[in-house]
UniProtKB/TrEMBL annotation:
Residues 1-41 are annotated as: Disordered. The keyword Cytoplasm does not apply. The chain crosses the membrane at residues 48-68, 74-96, 108-141, 161-183. Residues 46-193 form the HPP transmembrane region domain. The keyword Cell membrane does not apply. This is HPP transmembrane region domain-containing protein. It comes from the Bacteria.
Amino acid sequence: MSNAPSTAATAPAPTTAAATATAAEAAGPRRRPARTRFASKAPARPPAAFLAVATAGGVAGLVLLVAVGKVLHLPVLIPPLAASAALVLAAPALPLAQPRSVVGGQLVSALVGFGALAVGGGSLWTAAVAGGLAIGAMAAARTPHSPAAATSVIVVLTQPPALRFLGLLALATVLLVLVGVLAGRSGRTARYPAYWW
């Protein structure tokens, strides 16, 4: 009989951890549980009181614009102002929602729209260029307000009288800011504005 040790007898037995790792590699990449994979990364739902104040403020602000328009017999509510109201009332702490950006961004974008209209006429091509230029003009003026880019498009496509449109737009944005100030004083939302200018 030989005294040489048998290879089978001396090979170390795989440890439990190694065996588990080998089994996991054979099974393929590890999958996360379904609830984690599809979980939203969106912010948590705000409290009911915040939702109530933001919703009531949005309705009140936009209805106020319609009422002012009825008194003046002129359209005061235009679609971008509904988006402005959403920022002022539902995201009052954002820089895009501050008075400088709401009023200034809307007016800067409208001026860009009138400039583009004067140069390129009332085509869809000009409207597209005006919307893009408005983004840059607002950034340069430090009045970023995303809904206002649509205002420049509306100016090109509808060709309103410039002075009247600008006056009504200034009035409408100031009214929305005032509604935001009232909502911010309710104690249910963030204090608004974070800054005026």
